[in-house]
Amino acid sequence: MIVTERPEPWHHRTRRFLRATDQRRELVRGARFLRGLVPGAGEPLAPSTGRSSDRLARLLAEAGADRPSATRELGLAAVQAWQAVRRSGAPAVSADGITVLFTDLVGFSTWALEAGDDRVLQLLREVSKVTESIVIGHRGSVVKGLGDGVMAVFADPGEAVNAAYETCSAVSVIKAEGYLPHLRAGLHRGNPQRVGDDYLGVDVNIAARIMAAADGDEVLASASVVEELDQDIFTVRPRRNFRAKGTPRDLRVFRVVPRYSS
């Protein structure tokens, strides 16, 4: 009996050819060279913000890291290019500083324990969509999501206050079973250090502490923000007896409301 070997299926041959081509040294070297020309290459301190592009970049970086691949290098180059375009919309830190905004849903954690994942995720998606739209509309940039809130930055303090107030108002009408969403917001102006997509430093911490002291639907801002506002456009009232761990003792905080809504 004569046994003849079956020919290798064409799709196996094709797969083997493509894999070998993808690992060719000259192609990998060329792809790495192109990736090096893309803005954002080699930023080891750039943190993950939770955005889809950041997750994709991490997966690409980890996938087949022990095996050279031209496709992987080109994929990373494409993601880096997209991230660079996205970062270009963020305000530059100038000598006058930037305004940092933090938001947070009041009472969210307690409700989330009983609500179930589906309802929680649905609410967070709606809040995130509304927040990002308003921030961008006021020439700001969402730096990162913080679960039930965001961190955003603005070049113009007036735009930052308007964005904060409009976001609080928009979130308050979102429907969620067993929960009435109320957002609080805190703003501070300073010169934080930019690292990749993120901002770090004392000024960022102060903005977060101010937010934590706000009530639902309330926008609090430090004197560094208020001093830059047009007093004909905003109503400003001191938040007396403000104390927050990790903030300067002489920090003055105010409740701010656009006059069109007061």
From TrEMBL:
* An MF annotation (GO) of this entry: adenylate cyclase activity
Q: Name one GO biological process term.
A: cAMP biosynthetic process
What superkingdom does the record give? Bacteria
Q: Which SMART domains match?
A: CYCc (SM00044)
Pfam families per the UniProt record, alphabetical: Guanylate_cyc
- Using the record's annotation, list all stretches that form the Guanylate cyclase domain: 99-211
User: Do you know which InterPro entries this protein is assigned to?
Assistant: A/G_cyclase, Adenylyl/Guanylyl_Cyclase_3/4, Nucleotide_cyclase
Q: Which CDD domains does the record associate with it? A: CHD
Spell out the family assignment given in the record's similarity comment.
Belongs to the adenylyl cyclase class-3 family.
What protein name does the entry list? Adenylyl cyclase class-3/4/guanylyl cyclase
Lineage of origin: Bacteria, Bacillati, Actinomycetota, Actinomycetes, Pseudonocardiales
